[in-house]
Amino acid sequence: MNDIRKEQLKAIIISSVALVLGVLFIVLKEEMLGLLQTVVCFALLAFGIIEIVIYCFLNTEDRDYSKLIIGAVATVLALLLIFVGILFVIILGLIVAISGVMFIKSSIDDKKEGDKQWWISLIIGVLFLILGVSVAILYNIEVLKNIIMIIFGATLIFEGIMGFVFVFILHKVIRLNFGKREKSAEEEGAEETETEEEVKVETKKIKKEKSQKIAENTQKIEEKSAKTTESVQKPQKTYKVVEEIVDPDDGGFV
Q1: Same domain, yes or no, for 84 and 175?
Q2: Residue 254: pLDDT band by 50, 70, 90 thresholds?
Q3: How high is the pLDDT of residue 47?
Q4: Does residue 250 lie within any of the structural domains?
Q5: In DSSP terms, which residues pair with 247 in a beta bridge?
Q6: Are residues 78 and 135 located together in one domain of the fold?
């Protein structure tokens, strides 16, 4: 449960930051473009320098030339972006154009899979491709740069809203599952209670039947005992009658 709450909190923070940045990109286009350029340039420069330094301090056997090349390219690109500011706008245009190509490819895949809404991705992809190429070629036009910033801002706002929707749905699902667990626990408890009562009733029934059988068996035993006693007493009575009829002293009948 704690892990789920941590994920919810993380999603809320990321969504909030995305919403704020999205609004700033739309409202403060020029300022945010300059800020974005500065952050990207210095981050890229730091990455390139770190890669080169790591390569230089490694042993000869552990050195990987690909890391040195990546570090050098990142450093050179960062310096170009810092001193040739317009290059950053061109790169942004290329990124938008590449995104458009990805949308177009996604729409083609959706159409092959039978998705009826494939044309939405196609329209977005074509618009992104046209806009990205236009910005990359006609980078001096202010309107195109503003459109790029609006797109970035709208994308961030959309991501922020979707993040909050995700948190809301996750919260609903957790509550629903928790309610189902409580309900199932109550049902299980009720079933256990019913089972215990049924067992008690069944036990009483069995005890009653056993008591009845014991009573019947006892009665039968008593009846048999009575019959046995009668059968034993009958010869004794006959002998007494004979004794009364025959006088042993006279050796004959009375």
Answers
A1: yes
A2: very low
A3: 92
A4: no
A5: 252
A6: yes
The structure tokens listed for 225 are 């005992």
How many secondary structure helices (H) and strands (E) does the chain include?
6, 2
Tokens of 144: 């195109």
Residue 182: the pLDDT is 58
If asked whether residues 89 and 202 sit together in one domain, one would say: no
Distance CA 66, CA 69 (A): 5
Nearest CA-CA partner of 130 in 158, 159, 103, 157:
103
Residue 246: strand, helix, or coil = strand
Residue type, 13: I
Query: Same domain, yes or no, for 209 and 160?
Result: no
23 and 53 share a domain?
Answer: yes
The yes-or-no verdict on residue 49 having pLDDT over 80 is yes
* Total residues found in the chain within this entry: 254
The tens digit of pLDDT for each residue in 201-239 reads: 777 777 777 677 776 766 766 666 666 666 655 555 554
Kindly give, in sequence order, each residue whose CB lies less than 8 Å from that of residue 91, ignoring residues fewer than 6 positions away.
Answer: 81
Q: Which of 23, 38, 35 is nearest to 150 (CA)?
A: 23
Q: Cα 228 from chain centroid?
A: 80
Q: How far apart are CA 69 and CA 55, in angstroms?
A: 10
pTM of the entire structure? 0.54
pLDDT in tens, 130-176: 888 887 777 666 777 788 788 888 888 988 898 888 888 877 877 77
Residue 89 domain-assigned (yes or no): yes
Q: Can you read off the two tokens belonging to residue 92?
A: 């942004």
